[in-house]
Structure formats: C-alpha cells, structure tokens
Known about the structure:
Strand content: 25-35%
Order of helices and strands: EEEEHHEH
Structural class: alpha+beta
Number of helices: 3
Largest sheet: 5 strands, antiparallel
Number of strands: 5
Shape: globular
Distance between the termini: 60 Å
Strand order of the largest sheet: 1-2-3-4-5
Radius of gyration: 23 Å
Amino acid sequence: MITSTISQYDSSTLKSATYNYKHKTLTVHFNHATYVYNGVSRSDFESFNSAESQGKALNEFIKGKYDFEKVNESTIKTELTGLVKNITAPGSLLDELPPSDYQLDN
C-alpha cells in the first residue's frame, strides 16, 4: 500500500510536493517556503499533480479550499547551519580532558 508520494516539478517557483494518502496532507515546497495543506482530497491532489502547470492548479484546486500552515525553510536552514557550526567549532579534544592529577599513570 502506498502511503505517500513525492513529485518534482520543472517550475521556476514550485520545486516539489509530497502527498500523504493516510493523513490527506499536501506539502508544497517553493523556493523560499513550504506550505502544508490539510484535508486535501485524493482527487484534488491528483488534479494538481497531473496538471501542466502546478502553479495554476494550486490556485484552482487547493488554495482557498483547504487550511494551510506556512513553514519558512530559510529559518530551518539557518538553525541547522548554526547547529553544524556548534558541532564543528574548532578546538581540541585535549581541552576536554581532566587535569593531569586526575589521569591514570600509563
């Protein structure tokens, strides 16, 4: 049983979309943000997904019909970048060793 599908699009603004058949959520990835639409019917998703223009189909079949939440990808990338910087911060493992009087003689 297929539970979700991901489609990639050749569009200047709309990159991809993911549809979850079980939860009826459509996640649309644009260049700078992601929108999650809730309660999207399978037929509306299929009409959107198979259209010649997903931008036009989004306006025709999805927008205004379903509740949505905007997720800002730029913020997520910034947070992840900051996390990576913290993990890879320069330093030495020797800085984390206890003072020599706590170390065992080898």
